[in-house]
Amino acid sequence: MRVVERSIYRGPHLYSARPMIRIRLDLGALEDWPTNRLTGFAEALIEQLPGLSAHGCSYGQAGGLVRRMADGTWLGHVIEHVAIELQACAGATVTRGKTRSVKHQPGVYDILFSYADEISGMAAGRAAIALVDTLLPPGLRGTTGLDRLGSALLTPPTDTETTIAALRRLVIANGLGPSTAAIVREAQRRSIPVMRLNTGSLVQLGTGSRQRRIRASVTGSTSLIGAELAGNKHAAKQLLSEIGLPVPKGELVHNRQEIIAAAIRLGWPVVVKPLDGNQGRGVTTHVLNNVQLGAAFDAAAAISRRVIVEQMLLGTDHRFLVVAGRLVAVAERVPAHVIGNGRETIAELIARINDDPRRGNGHEAVLTRVRIDEVLHGFLRTHGHSLSTVPHAGEKIVLCGTANLSTGGTAIDRTDQVHPENAAIAVQAALALGLDVAGVDILSTDIRQSLRATGGGIVEVNAAPGLRMHIAPSQGTPRDVARPIVASLFPRGSQSRIPIFAITGTNGKTTTVRMVAKILGAAGYRVGFTSTTGVYIDGHRQIEGDASGPKSARKVLRNPVIDAAVFETARGGILREGLGFDACDVGAVLNVTEDHLGLKGVNSTGDLARVKSVVVESVKRRGHSILNADDPLTVAIARHARGTIVWFSGDSSAVERGPVQRHIADGGTAVVRCADSIVLCRDGERFPVIPVDQIPATVGGAAEFNVLNALAATAMTAAYGIPVLVIAAGLASFHASFEDSPGRLNIVEAHGVTIIVDYAHNPAALGALAKLLDHYRGRGRLMGMIGLPGDRRDSDLRDIGAQAAGIFDEIMFREGPDGRGREAGTMNALMAQGALATGKDPATIHLLVNEADATDFCLKRARPGDVVVLTPTDIDGIWARVQAFASAHPNEYWGATLTQMANG
Fold first, then answer.
1. Which member of 60, 80, 277, 377 has the lowest number of beta carbons within 10 Å of its beta carbon?
2. Which part of the chain is the ATP-grasp domain (predicted)?
3. Mean pLDDT over all residues of the chain?
4. Is the pLDDT of residue 892 over 90?
5. Strand, coil or helix: what is 126?
6. From 372-386, 449-463, 544-558, 590-604, the region with the lowest mean pLDDT
C-alpha cells in the first residue's frame, strides 16, 4: 500500500459538509485482494478491535461491517472503519466516514473519516493503515508514504492496546477540557459557529462583530474586577459580609506569630488557606492546635505570601453554580476517600479507585485521579494513618482536607434539594462580586434548610468554576450547565453569525466581491472581504497577497470589527481544505470555463463545476444561491444548490425563455440586463436598478464582463434584502480604478497611450477582454503582455498563444514569478509556438521571462494612439511601473525617438 496524498478538510468540501481527513491510498497489488480472499483477516481484525463488530456500515445495523468483510470489500474501506474505531477507543466522539474509488485510477481510493482534532485524527489514520498491514499475509505487507500523515506516531506501537493508549494521550493533549467542551457542544447544538483560537481552551463563539469568547467557564463578559475580587478571598469575604451575607470570621496574617494570635481570637478549630489560591491548593481544614497551625501556615504560604485564617464552619461542602444572576446547579463535594475492606492497604485502595475509567489526570476527565504526594502523606499522618494502613471493612478514610474534584474528590447533585433562601444567598454573592459565572462554596449541615437557621455560610466565591461536578456528578442527576452559559452570551432572538457572501467561478470573482462589498458598505455594514489581492477590513487592506482561500476567510470571521463578510472562494482552497466557513447566507457561482485543468484531479470543466458547486451546496436553508443563467455548466449546478435560487443573465431575452422565464413566472427572483439597464424581477414585478452606462466599471457598457459582475452583485445583495436604491448607489460609486478594483480593468491614459491593466489569466477572461478591445481598434496598435502560471498544461499555453495572436498586433509573452517548477523560458516558447502556428509574423512576437522587464519593454515601445494591455501576476509591482510611466517626462521613456517623431 502507498499513501499518495492527504488533506485535512476544516469546512464543507467535495465529499461532505463535515470536517474530515482524506487519505488517498494506492492499494497496488492489494486491489486484487478483497477481504473475502484474505483468510482469517476479518477475524484477526475484530480480535484486535472488538468494537468494529458494532459498526453498521451500509447496512445501518450492528454487524454490518462484518457482513461486508465476509462478502468482500476493499482494504481502503476497512481502513476507514479502523481509523474511526481507533479514535473512538481513544475517547474521541467520531462516527462518520466514507471511502470512494478515484476516477480513472484503478486501485486508488480516497479514505475519509471524521476527527476530533487534526493531530490525533491523522495519527489514527496512520495507525489504521499500519494495523491493517500487520494482519495481511507476509507477501502482501508493506506500506510507503506514511510520513505524509505526520509524525505523531512516527513509530507505530507494537500492539493495539499501546496504539490506543498513545492515541488517547494525543486526544487529551489536543482536545478541550470538560468545561470548555461542554460549552462548545451546546454552541454547536444551537448552530453557533465555533473557532478554537489557540491550543488551549480559548474559543470564539459566533463570527465577526457578533462573536463572544470563552476560556473554560470564563466568558468575555466576566468582570476583571470580579475575578480579582474572587481571587482575593479576604477582600471578597469582607464585601459579602458588608451586605449581610453569612461568612466565617477571619483574619489576614503574614507570619506564624500572627496566625497563632488570630487562631486564639477566632477559636478552634480553624481553617488556613492562601489569600489567592485555587483548586484547594494550600488549604488545611480542621486545624486544632498550634502544631497543626504551623504546618498549615507553611502549606498556605507556599502558595501565597499572605495567608487567611478563619473560623471552621460546620457542615458539608456545597458548590452553587450561578450563571447570569440565576442558580443553575448545586453539588455536594465529597473529599477524596477510600472505604476499607479489611484486606487492602490505603495505597491499594487508592489504586483501585484510580482505576475508575471516569478518572484522569488534571481536568482531562470528569473525575481526577488521587495523587499520592507529600500533602496526602501529611494528611494521613495527622489522622494517624499511612499508606500501609489496612482500614477495617466499611471504614471511611478521608485522604484530603478539601473537597475539590482536582484533588480527587467526588460530587453528588443536590440541585433539587436547595432551600430557596440558600439559592438567593448564592446569587447575591455572585452579583456582589460582579461575576457572570461564579462558583459559590457554601458549608451547611443541611442544605435543605436556610443557612440563617442552621449556621454555616459562604467560604469562597470562585471565578472560572469547573463544570465537571455538575455535568457528570458521581451521584445524582447530571445538569446541563453549559446551556445557561451559552444562553447568557446569546440570549433568545440574538444573532451569533454575521452574514457571509461567498463567490466562486472561473472569472469575475474578485470584481464581484468588491462590488458586493461596495454595496454592503453603502448599506452601512462594516465589511471584511477576501480576494486575490489581499484581506480587506472596513475599506483598508490588512493583509497583502492571494487571500482567496479558507485561511483568509477565517481571519475575517475572527475580526470583531466586521458586520458582513464577502469571500472570493477559489478552486484551490476548496480542494485543499474545503471552505473557511460552515455555511453562507448567499453563495454565487458566476461561470465555469476551462482553467486549472489537469490539476488535483480536475480534468474537465465538469470536474471544475463539481468543485465550484461546493459553495452553493453550503448555502443556508433560508439563504440564496445565485447562478448565471447564461452559462450551461452553472445552470446544471442548480440541482445541487441549497436555499432559494436567484438567476442572473446578461441576455435581455432570458426573461422570455429558459430557466429565467420559468423562474420569474413562478414568482422567483432574477436579475437581468434589459434595455441597457439592470432590472430586478421579483414577485412578478420588475424594478429598474441602474442603467448600465451609469456604472463606471462597465466603461459605458463596453466592458460586458463587468456588466455580468454587476448583475451578480445586484442579485446577491437584493437576495439578502438590500434596498434597490442602495444597490444602485453602490454600483454607481464603483470604478474600474486601482483603488476600487486593483488589477481588474484599470485604465490609464498617459502621453497619448491607453494602458489597460487586467488580470486575464485564462482563455475566457482574455476573450472577454478582446470584446472590450474591439472598441479601441483603429486608433493605433494593440499590444499585449500575456502570461499564464506555470501549472497550466502545455496545450493551455499553446492555446493562449494562439488566442493572443488573434487579438493583438504585437505580443510580449512573459513568465513572471509563478513558473511553479518549469524551467525559465519554456512557457514563453510554448506560447510563442501557439502564436506562430496561426501564421503570426515572428517580428511581432517578443519574449521576456521577467514581467517587470516585459512591462517596461511594452511601455517604451508604445506610441501615442497605441493601446497596451498588461496582464500581470505582480499586480502591485506592475501598477507601480505604470504609474511611473504616467508621471514621467516622455523623454525618460522614449528619449530621442519622441523628438524625432515630433519633428516629422
1. 60
2. 237-490
3. 91
4. no
5. helix
6. 590-604
CA distance 223 to 437: 10
In 267-345, alpha helices (H):
290-301
Residues in CB range of 18: below 8 A, 6 or more apart: 12, 96, 114
Q: Which three cell numbers stand for residue 686?
A: 420588475
Where in the chain are the domains? 2-174, 249-311, 500-648+703-718, 746-902
Average pLDDT over residues 604-616: 92
DSSP state of 843: G
CATH architecture entry for 500-648+703-718: 3-Layer(aba) Sandwich (3.40)
Tens digit of each residue's pLDDT (9 = 90 or more) over 39-80: 999 999 999 999 999 999 988 899 999 999 999 999 999 999
CA dist 258 and 250 (Å) reads 12
Nearest CA among 196, 216, 187 for reference residue 558: 196
CA–CA distance from 702 to each of 673, 698, 705 (Å)?
Answer: 13, 6, 9
Q: Which of 499, 577, 496 is nearest to 189 (CA)?
A: 496
Residue 206 burial by Cβ neighbours in a 10 Å radius (0-12, 13-18, 19+):
buried
Confidence at 375, pLDDT banded by 50, 70, 90: confident
User: Which residues touch 115 (CB under 8 Å, ≥6 apart)?
Assistant: 8, 19, 20, 21, 87, 92, 94, 121, 122, 124
Measured between alpha carbons, how far is 309 from 256 in angstroms, rounded to an integer?
11
Q: What is 746-902's CATH superfamily?
A: Mur ligase, C-terminal domain (3.90.190.20)
Same topology, domains 500-648+703-718 and 746-902? Answer is no
C-alpha dihedral, 70 to 76 to 79 to 81, nearest 10°: -70
In the sheet that holds 534-537, the strands lie side by side as: 540-544, 534-537, 527-531, 564-568, 500-504, 584-589, 619-628, 644-649, 669-674, 677-682, 685-691
The residue behind cell 517623431 is 901
Q: What is the sign, positive or negative, of the torsion defined by CA atoms of 527, 529, 534, 535? A: positive
E-strand ranges in 395-492 read 396-398, 410-413, 437-444, 457-463
Residue 152, C-alpha cell as written in the block:
505523531
Q: At a CB cut-off of 8 Å and minimum separation 6, what does 578 contact?
A: 9, 10, 11, 12, 13, 19, 550, 614
- For 748-842, where are the alpha helices, taking DSSP H only? 763-773, 794-807, 826-837
Q: What is the Rg, in whole angstroms, of the alpha carbon atoms belonging to the chain?
A: 35
Distance in angstroms (rounded) separating the CA atoms of residues 723 and 116: 43
Cis amide prior to 269 (ω within 30 degrees): yes
Q: Are 820 and 796 in contact (CB under 8 A)?
A: no
If 0-12 CB within 10 Å is exposed, 13-18 middle and 19+ buried, where does residue 804 land? buried
Q: Rounded to an integer, what distance in angstroms lies between the CA atom of residue 242 and that of residue 221?
A: 25
Q: What is the pLDDT of residue 818?
A: 64
Residue 89 has pLDDT above 90, yes or no: yes
Alpha-helical (H) ranges within 355-480 are 374-382, 420-433, 451-454, 468-471
For residues 756 and 744, what is the distance between their CA atoms, to the nearest angstrom?
A: 9
Question: Domain 249-311, what fold?
Answer: Dna Ligase; domain 1 (3.30.1490)
